[in-house]
Specification:
The structure is a single chain. This protein is an alpha/beta fold. The protein is built from 6 helices and 13 strands. Strands 1, 2, 3, 4, 11, 12 and 13 form a 7-stranded mixed beta sheet that branches. The protein is globular.
Length: about 250
């Protein structure tokens, strides 16, 4: 089985890059983080459908999932393959995990959000994921840990070594160079990077980002233009569904 995980999709350039990349590829299962897919912040029903029609099986998200109101009803639909972080407090729209079947293989995808440097009232992602895995038996378990701190993402990967198939970090939009298979057999990477324009600042226009740092004021960011890249991680599983190999994706579109 060949699985692809794609980093945060940034606006229209990121969606276009993802569609172009997937059109001639043959993956068995694709997960993409779509929380920045609509104008650089959030996700809409229309942008989610575009990603799903391009070949994405599950869309994960993070702290921007609540940006557009029309997505809230959409993610509440029973069969919707769009996740919000599972460790948001109870009562929020949507779900934090999903189980899909590919022939006789049960694939569990879990979306989590870190707490370090993110000032939000979130439940513990470590305890949350333990509970989900314990109560939802699956053959393949994929985790998207949407977090700011590299330490928190790496700690979660170590915590789940031998329990999860893949633990991938998202949120910082920069593809990291630490993709590896842990001693217990879990594939992990600190951050998948992004699908979007590489010439700006983590996908956003350079001038607005520069002025934010220079002036200390909140200046509205715009999606950058120019060269686009697709970042992610390709994971190959053997006939026993153990991780057999992995390759980072850093491809100009």
């Amino acid at each position: 089985m060949k699985i692809l995980l794609l980093g945060d999709v940034i606006g229209r350039p990121g969606r276009t890059a993802l569609v172009s990349y997937l059109k001639d590829k043959n993956y068995d299962f694709v997960v993409a983080n779509g929380e920045n897919a609509a104008g650089g912040f959030g996700l809409t029903r229309a942008t989610a459908i575009q990603l799903l029609e391009a070949g994405v099986d599950v869309i994960t998200s993070g702290n921007h999932i609540w940006q557009h109101k029309d997505v809230l009803d959409y993610i509440d639909e029973m069969s919707c393959p769009v996740l919000r972080p599972a460790n948001y407090p109870p009562g929020n729209p949507g779900k934090g995990f999903i189980i899909l079947r590919m022939e006789n293989v049960r694939i569990l995808v879990i979306n989590l959000q870190g707490r370090l440097f993110i000032p939000m009232a979130l439940d513990c992602p470590f305890r949350t994921v333990d509970t989900i895995i314990r109560n939802n038996p699956a053959d393949v378990i994929i985790i998207d840990m949407h977090a700011e701190a590299t330490s928190e993402k790496q700690a979660l990967a170590q915590h789940l070594d031998g329990k999860a198939t893949i633990v991938a970090g998202t949120h910082t939009h920069v593809l990291t160079a630490d993709a590896r298979i842990l001693p217990g057999g879990t594939a992990c990477i600190t951050d998948l990077g992004m699908c979007g324009p590489i010439d700006g600042v983590i996908g956003m226009n350079t001038e607005e980002a520069r002025l934010r740092f220079l002036t200390g004021r909140h200046i509205r960011l715009k999606v950058a233009e120019g060269n686009t890249y697709v970042n992610g991680l390709e994971v190959v599983l053997d006939s026993e569904l153990n991780v057999d190999g992995l390759r980072t994706i850093n491809e100009k579109i």
